[in-house]
Amino acid sequence: MQDENKPKRPSVYDLTVGADVILTHGALIEGEDEINEWYALIDDWADKSEDKLTALRVVKKLALKRIDSLKLEIALFKGAIVREERTVDAMDDKAMSVMESFHEVTGKTKASTSDGGWVGIRTYKSEKVNIIDESVIPDGFMDVKRVPMRAELLSALKKDQDIPGVELERSERRGVQWGKMK
To answer: Which of 82, 89, 92, 120 could form a disulfide with 110 if both were Cys (CB 3.0 to 4.6 A apart)?
Structure first.
């Protein structure tokens, strides 16, 4: 028989609803102090759940789903930005066509718009270097970048090779391993 004074353990659904509220609140937080307060709020909520590990697992699982959703939104926003940039370029091309016709008729390179603004034809000048054959460019005009080859260094250090400027650092860290999260 269940103790009537003991609170009922929340279902995974109830935990998910609570985790969603907490994560939604956390999405608005900035600053290290506020983030630490938010983590304390999560900890307090998980303590009250009667099954802290399940509560923490639900928060983690929901946060991972939100990360996937945000990554998708980023991809969609990047696509939208590209489309808007194309629209901006297309409007400039259309305006240039109108201005060229206007210039042919009036001889003017600037026109007023009905909203109080103006549009003008302008020549932009620029210079750039085109590399035709990189192999014949004198060394004085080439930048040589030294990049450590970490995989090769690790392999040599594991074989007890002494290499100036590097050392092999070994470390261990403890972490939590979660079972399959459905």
So the answer is: 120
Domain boundaries, the chain: 12-112
CB atoms within 10 A of CB 63: 13
The DSSP result for the chain, as a single string, is ---TTSPPPPPHHHHHHHHHHHHHHHTT--SHHHHHHHHHHHHHHHHHTS-HHHHHHHHHHHHHHHHHHHHHHHHHHHHHHHHHHHHHHHHHHHHHHHHHHHHHHH--SEEE-TTS-EEE--------PPPS-GGGS-GGG-PPPP---HHHHHHHHHTT---TT-----------------
Q: Which pLDDT belongs to residue 160?
A: 94
The total of other beta-carbon atoms located within 10 Å of residue 66's CB is 15
Q: Sorting pLDDT into bands at 50, 70 and 90, what band is 76?
A: very high
Q: Which amino acid is at 59?
A: V
- Span 53-75, average pLDDT: 93
Q: What is the pLDDT of residues 120-163, one digit of tens each?
A: 999 999 999 999 999 999 988 998 888 999 999 999 999 999 99
| Contact (Cβ atoms closer than 8 angstroms) between residue 90 and residue 50 | no
